Amino acid sequence: MTHTFITGVTAGLGAALTRQLCAPSHQVSGVGRRADRLQALAATHPEFLGLTADVADSAAMGDAVTRAEAAHGPIDVAILNAGLYQPVDGKRVDSDVFRRHMEVNYMGVVHALDAIIPAMVARRHGHIVIVASVAGWSGLPKSAAYGPTKAALISLAESLWFDLTPTGIKIQVVCPGFIETEATAQNDFDMPGLMTADDAASAMIAGMASSAFEVAFPKSFTRTMRLLKFLPYSLYFALMRRRTGF
Q: How far, in Å, CA of 231 to CA of 217, rounded?
């Protein structure tokens, strides 16, 4: 029996992952802030345990991990997916918005790691998946608050790889492109390669089964984004402006 712990399960990618992973041989503990949506998932998936908590609260995350392991046993796989995205206009910087992105997107992952890693190290077994984004590769329109948090997560995962792989813990970073969610519905620009949450979850689960450190999808869009990273900034800015209209 595999026990997977997922954060951010009440919408988007997290909800799709939960639906696809719940099975008689696969128990899922899911963290979210919307109790009604957690209850709805539990009502249709008996393998699911809903845990109401804010990932930005360290004590709450520690308690959620304790409750998950009390119900389903040791955590085999941790998918740290919870995230906040609010498009911002760089001409009007609101430090509270930037701070909240860092508290949720970056520190939310750190709080979960704080609670999960010691037991995995002791068992010399575990799988940690950190959900970042292609927005962490290069700057994108409206992403001044969001993108830096995802860049930080990529660096975090790279650094943890050196410390955790010798202990038997598998670590991966996931960098999706645009996914149809409540968050991306706020965007007023073209989103190339836009995927449904269910398709993104399927791609992510397939990537998690591989030995790759980085899982990025959809392939056509992420290959293009990776190539753009190597262009001179004058060309990068011109191409992104032409593609997005900014």
A: 21
Please give the Cα distance from 115 to 109 (Å, whole number). 10
Tokens representing residue 119 in the block: 């037991």
**Using one digit for the tens of pLDDT, what is the confidence trace for 13-58?**
999 999 999 999 899 999 999 999 999 999 999 999 999 999 999 9
Report the candidate in 210, 228, 208, 219 with the shortest Cα–Cα distance to residue 176.
219
Spatial contact of 28 and 48, defined as CB atoms under 8 Å apart: yes
The domain 2-244 belongs to what CATH superfamily? NAD(P)-binding Rossmann-like Domain (3.40.50.720)
Give the strand pairing for 77-80 and 214-217.
Answer: unpaired
Domain boundaries in the chain? 2-244
pTM of the model: 0.94
Phi, psi of 238 (to 5 degrees): -65, -45
Q: Which two tokens stand for residue 236?
A: 């990068």
